[in-house]
């Protein structure tokens, strides 16, 4: 049975009419047309569906939308400012050529932003731990880590 649910996504209120058990990822992609979060494994294990929930990187592929009514949801699209300026980590990914196949890109950026919001100057081990929930299949780990370090240097000044 469908129900009207209001979500706060990327700073805007959205009301959707869906089954309350619908996973957030489906609502983001199908109802709100936000395609940054990707469907990967569907088991909350690969990280391609990550979003920020009140600042915490969280997989969205199995998360029932009814549980999110009062939470602040940020997707990959929400990292960019209204002016079009990219988040410093997005800029660093571009500078370091860290984006490759796109499977993990959403999860790496969301997890990296969550990490940098909590720790402006993470060490290499902290970066590895912060990105641990996201699988990368194309082997750009070293560039991704370098991008987080670059963003950290720019934002911690």
TrEMBL record:
<dbReference type="GO" id="GO:0016491">
    <property type="term" value="F:oxidoreductase activity"/>
</dbReference>
<protein>
    <submittedName>
        <fullName>(2Fe-2S)-binding protein</fullName>
    </submittedName>
</protein>
<keyword id="KW-0479">Metal-binding</keyword>
<keyword id="KW-0411">Iron-sulfur</keyword>
<dbReference type="InterPro" id="IPR001041">
    <property type="entry name" value="2Fe-2S_ferredoxin-type"/>
</dbReference>
<keyword id="KW-0001">2Fe-2S</keyword>
<dbReference type="InterPro" id="IPR012675">
    <property type="entry name" value="Beta-grasp_dom_sf"/>
</dbReference>
<keyword id="KW-0408">Iron</keyword>
<dbReference type="InterPro" id="IPR051452">
    <property type="entry name" value="Diverse_Oxidoreductases"/>
</dbReference>
<feature type="domain" description="2Fe-2S ferredoxin-type">
    <location>
        <begin position="3"/>
        <end position="79"/>
    </location>
</feature>
<dbReference type="InterPro" id="IPR002888">
    <property type="entry name" value="2Fe-2S-bd"/>
</dbReference>
<dbReference type="Pfam" id="PF00111">
    <property type="entry name" value="Fer2"/>
</dbReference>
<dbReference type="Pfam" id="PF01799">
    <property type="entry name" value="Fer2_2"/>
</dbReference>
<dbReference type="InterPro" id="IPR036010">
    <property type="entry name" value="2Fe-2S_ferredoxin-like_sf"/>
</dbReference>
<dbReference type="GO" id="GO:0046872">
    <property type="term" value="F:metal ion binding"/>
</dbReference>
<dbReference type="GO" id="GO:0051537">
    <property type="term" value="F:2 iron, 2 sulfur cluster binding"/>
</dbReference>
<dbReference type="InterPro" id="IPR036884">
    <property type="entry name" value="2Fe-2S-bd_dom_sf"/>
</dbReference>
